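PROTEIN DESIGN WORKSHEET
SECTION A - STRUCTURE
LENGTH: 135
TOKENS:
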């Protein structure tokens, strides 16, 4: 009888240990997944910061090469799509939306004939995105 109880206890302990190991592994993988998403967000936000710098330079040189401004805006939009597709974080999504709106406003200003649109809101929105992407 004692052997039977010992076997049940041993099996229960093994099952508990296995369950704990599986739970620990799953939580570690979930943590890694969240960390990978955050890292993707940071890397893409960094690319957006580079594009914003390009946009600032392009606006300064708009008279010489107006296509450069459009390229910088497209680069920002492409990177915004990457972040938007990879996250379900509400703060990140709001920052993406705000930056998208700022980019649209620059496009509208350019379409309305403004050759030196205010890119300050783009810069501010990109800074906010970088802030919310930082893990």
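SECTION B - SEQUENCE
RESIDUE ASSIGNMENT:
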């Amino acid at each position: 009888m004692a052997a039977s109880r010992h076997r049940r206890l041993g099996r229960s302990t093994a099952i508990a240990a296995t369950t704990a190991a599986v739970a620990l592994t799953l939580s570690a993988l979930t943590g890694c997944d969240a960390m990978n998403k955050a890292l993707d967000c940071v890397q893409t936000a960094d690319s957006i910061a580079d594009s914003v710098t390009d946009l600032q330079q392009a606006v300064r040189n708009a008279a010489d090469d107006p296509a450069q401004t459009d390229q910088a805006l497209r680069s920002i939009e492409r990177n915004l799509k990457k972040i938007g597709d990879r996250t379900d974080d509400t703060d990140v999504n709001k920052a993406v939306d705000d930056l998208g709106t700022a980019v649209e406003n620059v496009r509208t200003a350019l379409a309305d004939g403004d050759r030196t649109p205010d890119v300050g809101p783009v810069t501010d929105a990109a800074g906010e995105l970088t802030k919310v992407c930082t893990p």
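SECTION C - NOTES
The helical segments are 2-60, 66-86, 90-111, 120-133.
Confidence is low (pLDDT under 50) at residues 5-31.
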